[in-house]
Amino acid sequence: MSAHELRVEGLSVRYGHASALTDAAVTVPGGSVTALVGPNGAGKSSLLLAAYGSVPATGRVFLDGDDVSRLRPAARARAGIAIVPQGRQLFPHLDVVDNLQVMAELLHLPRSAVQGALDRFPILRTRRRSLVGVLSGGEQQMLVVARALMGSPRVLLLDEMTTGLAPLVVQELGRTVTALAAEGVAVLLAEPALGVLRRMVSRGYVLVRGEVLTCEEGGGRALDDAYRAAMGVQRPRELRPAS
Ligand SMILES: Nc1ncnc2c1ncn2[C@@H]1O[C@H](COP(=O)(O)OP(=O)(O)OP(=O)(O)O)[C@@H](O)[C@H]1O
């Protein structure tokens, strides 16, 4: 296994006069899943989009040590950075195959890449000629993850992948990204709360009001504790059986 790495340094994002991300430094090594947790509006999407190149940002982004900060999003995608964006950004009036074909063309991949993506989740093959707008939320999210993986990325950025999905779908997606991380893909999972993904996370960062506060290496539970501490929230007391 050769583990890939995403590293951002001094990454800052502003929308007009408003600062969304300030001087962020984050390293995402392949081999295990790294999480980015923070409340709504903390700047998680801004960090992921800045790493992907689709919002204007200052600072530097390194892919396996190479500075990709000056590359546009399509070039970063071809270099090996993939994103599962919040809101999915699918074409609802195209079918599953045609949605995948759009990415194949962006990445200059052969048509067989579409077939490979359909194999990623069995449900996608059975739904391949369905319009994407009629798929369930879970099916759509599987399609977005399959689409992101078409170019065999070195880095996978997942923006609130689990929001609104049933636990079984979350577990299936979680298994997929954990396996990818184990193969060496640098996986960064941004979530407002880890939920059932907690046990899949090895390390992570807490982001509050645009600032990276801590890097926690002790697994998902330790990251949750660091997140609670950053937010000034205490861990709920263990439930005791009623006497
Ligand atoms: N296109 C935009 N124009 C102006 N302000 C924006 C834009 N996108 C995000 N913001 C603001 O930047 C800040 C950070 O937003 P961002 O979406 O990065 O946070 P987030 O942690 O991903 O939040 P959420 O969990 O709600 O998606 C917020 O105050 C948000 O309102």
UniProtKB/TrEMBL annotation:
Transmembrane segments: none annotated. Belongs to the ABC transporter superfamily. It comes from the Bacteria. Residues 6-234 form the ABC transporter domain. Keywords: Amino-acid transport, ATP-binding, Nucleotide-binding, Transport. GO terms for molecular function: ATP binding. Gene3D superfamilies: P-loop containing nucleotide triphosphate hydrolases. This is ATP-binding cassette domain-containing protein. The lineage of its organism: Bacteria, Bacillati, Actinomycetota, Actinomycetes, Micromonosporales. It holds the Pfam family ABC_tran.
